[in-house]
Specification:
Helices cover about 80% and strands about 0% of the residues. The chain is mainly alpha-helical and about 325 residues long. α1 (about 5-20) runs antiparallel to α2 (about 30-50), α2 packs antiparallel against α3 and α9 crosses α10 (about 180-205). It is elongated and about 85 Å long. About 35% of the residues are buried. Mean pLDDT is about 85; it is low at about 325-334.
Length: about 325
């Protein structure tokens, strides 16, 4: 296709569309003309991008098409229907679709934490490298810092602080996944190292049951959210390497939008785990009751993902925006 000839043939239509878009009021005939010119210009943009892409011309036509689309379709406002759809379809479907990434991530990470805990708990020299003996006793003794940590602040403020810290970690996993997933691996290792140190030190003091009784009520749901975020971040990093049949730009846009939605959904999940950590973990409930609450919350989340999310994913929901809200797809050359 000769680009100069193509521009000469259609420039008048583009200028006319620009003129119509600049008017505050249109007659019926002008509105019909605007719709027709919008459709033609969108076709022209697709042809140019797939055949002889020109950055300057593509930019101008993209802007025209976007303005025309907004005028034709009107501005869409979010509603409670969008919130309900997100919570019952979009978010669980996105988590379900990412299960082949976050489930292995959870299994490998848990194994690493357990291995680190065993190594620290069975090697006194490693414990000595972490802190002085008096400091270790202050951490692990009955009423020590590992126990008082959860009741050191008022429950509400502690829950808010925990939620903020965990939400930041989850957001970083999702956002930094685009950097080939490498920062995600570091964040994940730091979390598993902290868990492994706690397991190792408390097991060496013969108080592993106490430690697990404190960690499991909130930790099951909290770590699952971290694993989901890490797995999604790793998948996003892999998309940079291998976008599949989609172009890299389109693949990253689709997976990135789904990841942003997951960040919002996981923030809600972490709100629940933060509430458990702030109000249930330090409570006077017996250990079995606290763990039961944590296990129930975890099973409820997994059922939510595999039942609602599985159903939505099989129906074609990917966690991305609805088709009407996305930018028009442009054909790519084979």
């Amino acid at each position: 296709m000769d680009l100069d000839v193509f521009v000469s043939a259609h420039r008048a239509e583009w200028d006319r569309l620009d003129t119509l878009l600049g008017r505050r009021r249109l007659t019926g005939a002008e509105a019909d003309e605007l719709v027709t010119l919008y459709q033609r210009t969108a076709t022209h943009l697709s042809l140019i991008q797939s055949s002889v892409p020109d950055p300057q011309l593509t930019g101008r036509l993209s802007q025209l098409v976007a303005r025309a689309r907004s005028t034709v379709t009107g501005t869409r406002r979010a509603s409670w229907r969008d919130v309900v759809r997100f919570l019952t379809e979009g978010f669980p479907a996105a988590v379900y679709r990412a299960r082949h990434w976050w489930v292995p991530t959870a299994l490998v990470s848990t194994a690493i934490a357990a291995l680190l805990g065993w190594w620290i708990g069975t090697h006194p020299e490693v414990q000595a490298s972490l802190a002085a003996p008096d400091e270790l006793r202050a951490l692990t003794r009955p009423g020590g810092q590992y126990e008082t940590y959860y009741s050191s602040h008022p429950a509400a403020s502690f829950a808010a602080q925990v939620w903020t810290n965990n939400a930041q970690a989850v957001a970083m996993c999702l956002v930094l996944g685009a950097f080939l997933g490498l920062p995600v691996l570091w964040i994940l290792f730091q979390n598993m190292l902290n868990l492994g140190v706690g397991i190792g030190l408390m097991s060496s003091a013969g108080r592993l049951d106490t430690f697990l009784g404190l960690v499991l009520p909130h930790g099951l749901l909290e770590l699952t959210a971290v694993f989901v975020a890490a797995g999604t971040g790793l998948r996003l990093g892999w998309t940079v390497i291998d976008p599949g049949p989609r172009s890299r730009r389109i693949a990253l846009a689709e997976e990135g939008r789904a990841a942003v939605g997951m960040a919002i959904g996981l923030a809600l999940v972490l709100f629940v785990s933060g509430a458990i950590e702030g109000f249930v973990t330090p409570s006077g409930l017996p250990t079995w009751a606290r763990i039961t609450i944590g296990v129930t919350a975890e099973l409820a989340f997994l059922a939510y993902v595999y039942v609602l999310g599985g159903r939505a994913a099989r129906a074609g929901d990917t966690g991305d925006l609805e088709a009407a809200e996305r930018s028009a797809a442009v054909p790519t050359a084979a």
